[in-house]
Design goal:
The chain is an alpha+beta fold. The chain folds into two domains: about 140 residues, no CATH class; about 120 residues, no CATH class. It has eleven helices and five strands. The chain has a five-stranded mixed β-barrel with strand order 1-2-3-5-4. A hairpin with a 2-residue loop joins strand 1 and strand 2.
Length: about 280
């Protein structure tokens, strides 16, 4: 059997997601797709990586979507940097991989329990995907954030920003935005709202990797929502098309939120931007 895995893509970003006591690695491909690194999951489950990789290659569906992503690997406190290749599946196919594991054939009770735990989580996500209603989607999202230690008030605010973000990316997709342009436009909006790039905001909070929004306070999330809602309004008002016009709309949306943020800070005598990660 061939060892070739798809065609090689470049990862343009990496996020480590806490999952119970384990950590799963998510990569953003240069094609705009979100990929999940498979080996960390297989090893977290206590399964044999070589055997699971061969199983994926034999699967008629999963084998078509298996990809190799080229990523930067850092060792020894950042001093040793090299490129590595990571076997990944698009996020939407991860449930298919998990359901292909026969938990009843696993003799080790601890490993079997962990496999069933992962599969239970996958069922929740699939229910949200198939029903397509807001309640199912919220249940899946709420379950994930509660597991990570967030409270209900923060989760509700985060849901609002996710819904707005989905509306915005749908508009971008319909109006010709492609690939890496999503990240550029997001950074433009963020910079206008907070006078910080997303990476600078992460650094301010002392967060090395991951989605900065998952470390924001409820107040910070509120101004993210203002910025993206303002951008959506600009898109509709001017019926923008293509990357350049969407860039202008994003700049205006971020700038509007920045003006609102500074007015709030002056009125209330407190800063919106927090140096602390929400969970900490």
């Amino acid at each position: 059997m061939s060892n070739k895995i798809g065609h090689e893509l470049i990862s343009i970003g990496e996020v480590t997601i806490p999952f119970y006591e384990d950590r799963l690695i998510v990569q953003l491909g240069e094609d705009g797709e979100i990929y999940v690194a498979l080996r960390p999951i297989v090893e977290a489950l206590g399964l044999n990586w070589s055997g699971q990789l061969q199983r994926i290659k034999r699967d008629a569906v999963l084998s078509k979507h298996l990809q190799t992503l080229s990523v930067v690997v850092t060792h020894t406190e950042g001093r040793d940097v090299q490129h590595g290749q990571v076997a990944c599946l698009p996020k939407k196919y991860l449930s298919g991989f998990l359901f292909g594991i026969n938990a009843n054939r696993i003799k080790d009770t601890a490993i079997r329990a962990k496999v069933l735990q992962f599969q239970e989580e996958a069922h929740l996500i699939l229910d949200a995907a198939f029903t397509g209603d807001a309640d199912s989607a919220m249940a899946a999202m709420r379950h994930r954030y509660l597991r990570q230690g967030y409270d209900e008030a923060w989760i509700k605010q985060r849901q609002i920003t996710i819904e707005t973000r989905n509306q915005l990316t749908d508009e971008w997709k319909d109006r010709g935005v492609q690939g890496r342009q999503y990240g550029i436009l997001t950074a433009v909006i963020h910079k206008g709202a907070f006078d910080l790039k997303p990476s600078e905001h992460r650094e301010l909070k002392g967060v090395e990797k991951g989605e900065v929004r998952d470390h924001m306070t409820g107040l910070e999330l509120a101004f993210v929502n203002v910025a993206e809602q303002a951008t959506i309004a600009n898109i509709h008002n001017e019926d923008v098309q293509g990357y350049d016009e969407n860039y202008d709309a994003a700049e205006k949306g971020g700038r509007s939120a920045g003006v609102a943020r500074r007015a709030f800070e002056e009125e209330h005598g407190r800063k919106v931007i927090s140096e602390q990660s929400y969970l900490e």
